[in-house]
């Protein structure tokens, strides 16, 4: 049902509605309802107009020209019928929809069965495909293996043809006696190259050539063993001192260098053979002569009476042999192993050399001769040490040379010590002449000659050390200075002793002991100073010790001056002590002694000094010291008022006393 919209209100009516007015209730129930709904009274024109329009609307539904309410009733009946029809339609639709739902459920069940069958068929198809793929893969693998086997067969045939050892080469490498030439080394290189190629192929995973590689390795090993035996036989045949090295020997060593065990065995055997040769040739050179690199015309032992020449010839022979052996090892290409092999080769010479040197030095008593032998040993020790690159390589031979040098130096020091003990014994038998004993002169002569020889040898040793880049510590000069210090200490000890009595029973006075000490020092200084400056090469050998000797001489001179001053004071009879009073008789006695010039003659007291210049210096120092003390006494006496005039007139002035002395 459609309702017409009320007409628009006029402008005047709108203005009337906008004006505030209090609603009033219309009479009757309809008026109250209208008033409740619209808040407008029923008699309002607008409400009336609206009700009229509504009435017209109801009249349109009146088909039988009844009132409007009758039409509305019929309209309600039609609507009820329509609702019933709609409900029946809904029921029919629901029933039909249920049937359709059942059909769809049946259809879904059928589709599920179809889907399960499809999945089963798909699984069967996949299984068939996998089986087909496996069969195809197996067929492919079989085909590949067939082709690989064919290829391996071809490779094996080619390997056997290419790398199989040639029968001619095998016969050349393994025949006896072995002929080492160009063809031999070509065959050896061919076998080595084939084995190397086989090893490379085996490293890549190819096992088909393992047997072939083993066969080649066996052939190569036997060939190298034969080559080592041939090399050792060749070295044994070279039994002379200056062997000629065949070039094939050097080539053989170069080939053996790649095999460490065979190479080490080879060089060890070569060193042992050369050791035997050197030992045998050294004995020949000692006993019969004509052996060795120098081809000595006479045996070395023919000069056994001359120790220096005897030891020098033996060391020179060994040094020349070392040079020859070094050339031999260098010719073999053993530059790195030369020092070690040379040390092994010299082992056989060490013991015979040690026995003869020790036997020779034991029979020697003269220190100079012992020093000559010691100098030779020290010099050759430096030369031999230069042949070895490291100290660990200097085994038995270098230990022997060093031991001989130390032993000879010890014997030299012992001989000098014995001579020094004799000199010290002679110190106790000093005569009134107060001269140094003759044994001291002999000892100083030996020491001075040793110093001179040592100075000359030091130049040669320094040159050898510079050329060989070696250094050695020689303390023979320290031994000499220790002996000289021992002698001087003993002389000073005798001076400081309370009483010294010689064999005749004569006791030496204190100043005489100081004179003896100065004579000993002067003798030592003269001998050593003359030797230290006589040769330009020996300057500085005792340079560090000579100032010490000069200091000790100055100290002894000072002690002698003190003793002589005390003697003059004692002989003057003057009361130099401040507590005593001087008497006229004392002055007269002093003047008499001074005029006699005997008891107070200082020059006569120091006349037994060996060094006259030192004696004059000491005499002047003594006179100066005595006059200084006399001047103090003279001033003291002159300043005293109680002094007797006779004493003052008799007392000599210090200048007069100095002149008379």
TrEMBL record:
<protein>
    <recommendedName>
        <fullName>Conserved oligomeric Golgi complex subunit 6</fullName>
    </recommendedName>
</protein>
<keyword id="KW-0175">Coiled coil</keyword>
<comment type="similarity">
    <text>Belongs to the COG6 family.</text>
</comment>
<keyword id="KW-0813">Transport</keyword>
<comment type="function">
    <text>Acts as component of the peripheral membrane COG complex that is involved in intra-Golgi protein trafficking. COG is located at the cis-Golgi, and regulates tethering of retrograde intra-Golgi vesicles and possibly a number of other membrane trafficking events.</text>
</comment>
<dbReference type="GO" id="GO:0006891">
    <property type="term" value="P:intra-Golgi vesicle-mediated transport"/>
</dbReference>
<feature type="domain" description="Conserved oligomeric complex COG6 N-terminal">
    <location>
        <begin position="75"/>
        <end position="164"/>
    </location>
</feature>
<feature type="domain" description="Conserved Oligomeric Golgi complex subunit 6 C-terminal">
    <location>
        <begin position="206"/>
        <end position="660"/>
    </location>
</feature>
<comment type="function">
    <text>Acts as a component of the peripheral membrane COG complex that is involved in intra-Golgi protein trafficking. COG is located at the cis-Golgi, and regulates tethering of retrograde intra-Golgi vesicles and possibly a number of other membrane trafficking events.</text>
</comment>
<keyword id="KW-0653">Protein transport</keyword>
<feature type="coiled-coil region">
    <location>
        <begin position="104"/>
        <end position="131"/>
    </location>
</feature>
<keyword id="KW-0333">Golgi apparatus</keyword>
<comment type="subunit">
    <text>Component of the conserved oligomeric Golgi complex.</text>
</comment>
<dbReference type="GO" id="GO:0000139">
    <property type="term" value="C:Golgi membrane"/>
</dbReference>
<dbReference type="GO" id="GO:0015031">
    <property type="term" value="P:protein transport"/>
</dbReference>
<dbReference type="InterPro" id="IPR048368">
    <property type="entry name" value="COG6_N"/>
</dbReference>
<dbReference type="Pfam" id="PF20653">
    <property type="entry name" value="COG6_C"/>
</dbReference>
<feature type="region of interest" description="Disordered">
    <location>
        <begin position="1"/>
        <end position="28"/>
    </location>
</feature>
<dbReference type="GO" id="GO:0017119">
    <property type="term" value="C:Golgi transport complex"/>
</dbReference>
<dbReference type="Pfam" id="PF06419">
    <property type="entry name" value="COG6_N"/>
</dbReference>
<keyword id="KW-0472">Membrane</keyword>
<dbReference type="InterPro" id="IPR010490">
    <property type="entry name" value="COG6"/>
</dbReference>
<dbReference type="InterPro" id="IPR048369">
    <property type="entry name" value="COG6_C"/>
</dbReference>
């Amino acid at each position: 049902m459609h309702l017409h919209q009320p007409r628009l209100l006029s402008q005047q009516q709108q203005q009337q509605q906008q004006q505030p007015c209090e609603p009033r209730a219309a009479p009757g129930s309809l008026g109250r309802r209208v008033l409740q709904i619209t808040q407008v009274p029923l008699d309002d024109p607008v409400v009336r107009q609206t009700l009229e329009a509504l009435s017209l609307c109801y009249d349109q539904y009146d088909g039988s020209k009844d009132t409007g309410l009758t039409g509305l009733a019929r309209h309600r009946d039609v609507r009820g019928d329509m609702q019933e029809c709609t409900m029946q339609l809904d029921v029919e639709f629901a029933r039909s929809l249920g049937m359709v739902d059942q059909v769809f459920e049946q259809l879904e069940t059928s589709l599920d069965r179809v889907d399960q069958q499809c999945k089963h068929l798909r699984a069967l198809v996949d299984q068939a495909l996998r089986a087909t793929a496996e069969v195809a893969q197996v067929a492919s693998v079989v085909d590949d293996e067939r082709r690989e086997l064919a290829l391996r067969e071809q490779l094996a045939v080619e390997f056997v043809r290419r790398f199989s050892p040639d029968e001619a080469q095998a016969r050349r490498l393994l025949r006896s006696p072995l002929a080492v030439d160009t063809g031999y080394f070509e065959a050896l290189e061919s076998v080595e190259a084939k084995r190397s190629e086989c090893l490379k192929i085996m490293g890549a995973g190819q096992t088909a050539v393992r047997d072939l590689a083993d066969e080649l390795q066996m052939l190569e090993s036997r060939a190298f063993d034969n080559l080592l035996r041939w090399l050792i036989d060749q070295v044994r045949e070279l039994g002379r001192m200056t062997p000629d090295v065949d070039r094939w020997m050097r080539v053989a060593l170069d080939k053996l260098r790649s095999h460490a065990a065979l190479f080490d065995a080879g060089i060890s055997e070569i060193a042992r053979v050369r050791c035997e040769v050197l030992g045998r040739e050294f004995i020949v050179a000692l006993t019969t002569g004509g052996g060795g690199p120098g081809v000595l015309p006479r045996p070395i032992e023919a000069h056994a009476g001359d120790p220096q020449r005897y030891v020098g010839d033996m060391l020179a022979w060994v040094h020349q042999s070392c040079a020859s052996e070094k050339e031999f090892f260098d010719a073999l290409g053993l530059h790195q192993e030369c020092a070690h092999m040379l040390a092994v080769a010299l082992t056989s010479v060490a013991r015979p050399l040690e026995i003869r040197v020790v036997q020779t030095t034991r029979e020697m008593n003269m220190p100079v001769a012992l020093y000559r032998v010691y100098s030779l040993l020290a010099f050759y020790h430096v030369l031999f040490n230069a042949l070895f690159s490291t100290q660990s390589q200097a085994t038995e031979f270098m230990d022997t040379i060093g031991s001989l040098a130390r032993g000879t130096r010890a014997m030299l020091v012992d001989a000098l010590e014995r001579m020094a003990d004799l000199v010290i014994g002679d110190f106790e038998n000093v005569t009134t002449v107060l001269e140094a004993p003759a044994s001291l002169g002999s000892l100083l002569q030996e020491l001075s000659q040793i110093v001179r020889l040592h100075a000359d040898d030091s130049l040669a040793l320094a040159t050898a050390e510079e050329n060989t880049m070696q250094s050695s510590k020689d303390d023979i000069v320290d031994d000499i200075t220790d002996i000289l210090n021992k002698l001087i200490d003993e002389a000073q000890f005798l001076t400081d002793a309370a009483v010294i009595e010689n064999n005749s029973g004569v006791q030496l006075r204190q100043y005489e002991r100081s004179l003896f000490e100065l004579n000993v020092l002067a003798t030592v200084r003269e001998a050593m100073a003359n030797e230290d400056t006589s040769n330009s090469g020996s300057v500085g050998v005792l340079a560090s010790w000579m100032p010490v000797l000069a200091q000790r001489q100055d100290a002894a001179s000072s002690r002698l001056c003190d003793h002589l001053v005390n003697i003059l004071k004692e002989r003057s009879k003057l009361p130099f002590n401040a507590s005593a009073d001087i008497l006229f008789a004392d002055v007269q006695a002093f003047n008499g002694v001074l005029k006699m010039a005997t008891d107070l003659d200082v020059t006569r007291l120091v006349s037994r000094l060996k060094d006259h210049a030192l004696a004059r210096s000491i005499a002047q120092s003594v006179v100066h010291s005595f006059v200084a003390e006399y001047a103090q006494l003279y001033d003291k006496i002159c300043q005293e008022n109680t002094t007797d005039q006779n004493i003052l007139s008799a007392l000599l002035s210090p200048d007069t006393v100095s002149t008379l002395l």
